[in-house]
Amino acid sequence: MKNKNIFHFVIFISLMILFGFSFNQQNGNDMLSYKNKMFSIDERVDDLLKQMTLEEKIDMIGGTGFATKPIPRLGIPELRMTDGPVGVRWDKATAFPSGVSMAATWNPELINKVGAAIGRETKGKARHVILGPGVNIVRMPMNGRNFEYFGEDPFLASRLAVNYIKGVQSEGVAATIKHFAANNQEHERMFVDALVSERALNEIYFPTFKAAVQEADVLCVMNSYNKVNMHYAAENDYLLVDKLKKEWGFKGLVMSDWGAVHSTIPTAKGGMDLEMPSGTFLNKNTLTQPIEDGIIPIKTIDDKVKRILTVIFKLGLFDQPEWKEKPELVNSKENRNIAYQTALESIVLLKNENDILPLDKEKIKTLAVIGPSAARARTGGGGSAFVSAIDPVSPLDALKKKYSDKIKIEFTQGVELEGDAEGIPSKFLFTDKSMKTNGLNAEYFDNKNLEGSPKLKRIDKQVDFHWDDKSPANEIGEDNFSVRWTGYLKVPKTGMYSLKTSTDDGTRLYLDDKLVINDWNDHAVETRNYTVQLEEGKLYKIKLDYYENGGGAVAIFAWSMPDENKYDKSVELAKKSDLVLLFVGDSEQVETEGRDRENLYLPNGQDELISQVADANKNVVVVLTTGAPIVMDKWLSKVKAVVQLWFSGSEGGNAITDVLFGNYNPSGKLPVTFPKRWEDCSAFGTYKSFPARTYYSDDIYVGYRHFDTKNIEPLFPFGFGLSYTKFEYSNLSTSLNGDEIEISFNIKNVGKMNGEEIAQVYVSQKNPTIDRPTKELKAFKKVKLNAGETKNVKLTINKNSLAYFDGKTHDWNLEKDDYEILIGASSREIKLSTVVSLK
What we know:
This protein is of the alpha/beta class. It is built from 18 helices and 37 strands. Strands 14, 15, 16, 18, 20, 21 and 23 form a seven-stranded antiparallel sheet that branches.
């Protein structure tokens, strides 16, 4: 009995100690619940929120450039972010292949590895959030940011995005899916109103975001700049509240794109949680009184703060030491290998007449390498997705390294692309007429209007600056500054010169006091030209004004020297060579954030370059370094082969060399339709037809859905890609197992080379009561096959994925009907078919 009382006493004391410990946690300064890892994240967040003042809460919902505001009093750390979706844009890093390149692999498992690699590099830079992936659907082929995205099909994009996000977040870094929603053009992107049906939103433009939330548990979502159905995305309750947070159950934080907020009250009352880059509209001065007056419910502000804190807790930032930079995680051998493999698997063989590829190194004595993208590594497109790559490999570098001992390789550039020109060398620039000092006089101002006294005066040897997100000098900030350069220019020979300014943001160039370039406005990096006859031996007075508002900062003053005929050297080299590799495409200034391409042709006379070279040599292989479709009617019939390299990251040169010489059998397939002409595309009738708005009159008929349903012949269809071997499909069977349609078929490699085939499953409803596309992608698989090998492929389709969105009921509807299962090598090359009845 005595022992039992002692036992009860011990239990009582233990419970008192436990309850006392808990009480202290709730009330003591040193034992608060939010500091204790024994509590759940929700409990810790709720406790921390109780400790915060209104002023501190408001501070949390406005950024500080690329971070949230820390609250030192409570130990709340900043949440640090970095661009972008294809690599870490924070100083230099590995440039991974562009988003469209990733999509061309049709390999979700590989893209999971890419995400993990980008996550590691983000940690290596001591950042917590990567601002990617970008998943907007490729609707308009001239969109300047198409290269960032995963193509035109929501199912393919969803599978890749889910795996990318899981990869990033497996490394303890937050992914950010963007741009929500209907951000499908750069023209007027800051304010254009995308007028689109609810059905098209839910069937085409939402699925990738929904999958990211419900399957990948993405931690961050970024809204877009544009309006959607008359409301800015940052204050659009249908997008951010009804769909994202309520229907899909998103628990993370919603941030604005940089400068995408336009109001205080509507934004604060809505679903956007964090204004970036700063709290221009959401700050103490604008919010305190409306909150205290009850105009903005405090619970709405609390929800925003809770979401930000939840991400901070999920990343473990309260429970570990301050993240330090780890250079060993950046550009590691493992990450370079992943970049190489992705580039390799993304390459699409579009034409291969007479099996000119793969090249036989034993049969080629002289090889001409021609074009503006041969000696330059086109790692990515421009804007916030551009990564300053560490040791990028150009095609010419790789070709020479691997084959110059066996083949005579000669190079000529042919033409120059926008943004390729380097700053005018200092030996042609002078500070005054005495010509004793080379360079230009530079005056730097701490405002964007060249006002007041300059904060810094110096001599800049040339104007060739890529400051990006850094400041040009200690006396000058990272943003909101201006520069004036003055001096004289002396040319080496008489002729027609093209003076160029490549800037982000505005510039004005005066030649002998005459304004010849006037580009005084905000924009991403763009090049302006002024062509003029200049005489040898004469001094020309130069004044160049520049300002930087926000974001990246670039200022380049360049020229193109006089040239008799820019094609002559290329034609001459082609005539004396056994074979020509012609590397053409776009630059990061042609395909870039902030502007759309003017048309679908290759810029800067490259179509004419191809034609003239092809007339001089019958063995021409064209390699395209673009991030989006182009038209080829001017030269396609003249060349033997066409290979789509895309913007292929740091290892693109090695990858294309291995494909061209048969060290790897190309397996990429197009994630976008290549049209024969712009007029055939679904957006043709409405793009730029109305100021500040665009009607999605194509509705759900985007990409191959449009081409197939309207029976328009594309140049190259969605899902298309040749191989150095051949594949045969057979033995299709299907069965119903609950909600799953189980599909089985065989693929055989009937050629003489090992290879990979991407089998695509499309579905077509036989008797729909509503207008539906001819067919839609619902499954796919990449299959590796040795020569002569046969494999059985098994895939499943959930019946619910065959439903359509009913705009009348605002819900999904699966009709009882017959559905045709189509197995294809592309959307136009159907190999097998059968019918499944859902009654």
